[in-house]
Amino acid sequence: MNSNPFVSPFKYTLPPNDGKKTLNASFGRRLRLEQGCEHLGDYISPPTESMSEDIGQQVKDAPSSQIFGGFGVEPGKLAHTPAQACDAGELIRGGSFLVLIEADKEFFVGLLSVFHGDGWHLDVLKLDADHVWSAEHRRLVLVPQQGTVTP
Question: What would the DSSP string read from start to end of the chain?
């Protein structure tokens, strides 16, 4: 995987997932699906194996396509299922995370905000919306492990 000038790394592991979770059922009122993402809420994910993650911290302002494109691999290798995004919300103890989600051969970017002891919130927009994320917030970027994410 290429060095990415937008993030610096650390590690995390997601457990196996039966794929039965949906974003609507897991996040409820704390889920906001932007235009073009509405069908993602009830999408049933395929089952997944345990997956090691590289987690990088955003260090430069950039749109979604540059952040995830900066790793030098195809988006499908960086994407999570909606059910895995739910697992991340349940397992991570705090922070603000960007997560690439794939469903029905489409890509979305989720901003997963996890609050200490108070649940989580997920905002989802299409990857090609190319929203620019400010590095000032030092968001973390969840990336399935493809090797080492180097700054």
Answer: ----TTEEEEEEEEPPB-S---HHHHHGGGEEEPTT-GGGGGPPPPPB--EEEEEEEE-S-EEHHHHHHTT-S-GGGT-B-HHHHHHHHHH--SEEEEEEEEETTEEEEEEEEE-TTS-EEEEEEEGGG-PEEPGGG--EEEEE-SS----
Residue pointed to by tokens 């009830």 = 42
Flag whether 149 is in a domain: no
Domain that holds residue 117: 7-144
pLDDT digits 0-9 by tens, 87-105: 887 777 778 899 999 998 9
Provide the domain count of the chain. 1
Residue 95 lies in a domain: yes
CA 16 to chain centre: 16
Residue 151, in any domain of the structure: no
The verdict on residue 2 lying in a domain is no
Give the residue from 8, 55, 34 showing the smallest Cα distance to 128: 34
Is residue 21 very low, low, confident or very high in pLDDT (cuts 50, 70, 90)? confident
C-alpha pair distances (Å), 116 with each of 41, 46, 113: 24, 29, 10
pTM of the model: 0.85
